[in-house]
């Protein structure tokens, strides 16, 4: 796999991407989404999941956003461990911010684990601000930090 960002393609997720997506999901989260969950996102009218593909069409990362009226929300995002810290996650989030803006969103929100300092740092760099916390939101009792990007 090539690590050069100029060879990354961001495109709509398809069912054929799910094996790669699930491999990343399982290695990224203690309670990963299932194939059924991703299939539901692919079919949901307000969702528009995306993947980042390398030159050989291998899934490097993915993001599952939704847009309801003027409110965007990022439900799930992860990058293959080989590509973390190389800009793939940034590209995915920036694409969602662009797409939501084009579709009339006034803001995009998300929840992130308090312990996920790299993701929180990325979101802050991109202009997200903290708006609150959800106590014991995650399965291990960890709080979620609520963040929003306002256009």
Automatic annotation (TrEMBL):
GO terms for cellular component: cytoplasm; ribosome. It catalyses: N-terminal L-alanyl-[ribosomal protein bS18] + acetyl-CoA = N-terminal N(alpha)-acetyl-L-alanyl-[ribosomal protein bS18] + CoA + H(+). It is an enzyme of class 2 (transferase). Keywords: Acyltransferase, Cytoplasm, Ribonucleoprotein, Ribosomal protein, Transferase. The keyword Cytoplasm applies. The keyword Cytoplasm applies. Its main location: cytoplasm. InterPro entries: AcTrfase_RimI/Ard1 (IPR006464), Acyl_CoA_acyltransferase (IPR016181), GNAT_dom (IPR000182), YpeA/RimI_acetyltransf (IPR050680). PROSITE patterns: GNAT. NCBIfam families: rimI. Acetylates the N-terminal alanine of ribosomal protein bS18. This is [Ribosomal protein bS18]-alanine N-acetyltransferase. The gene is rimI.
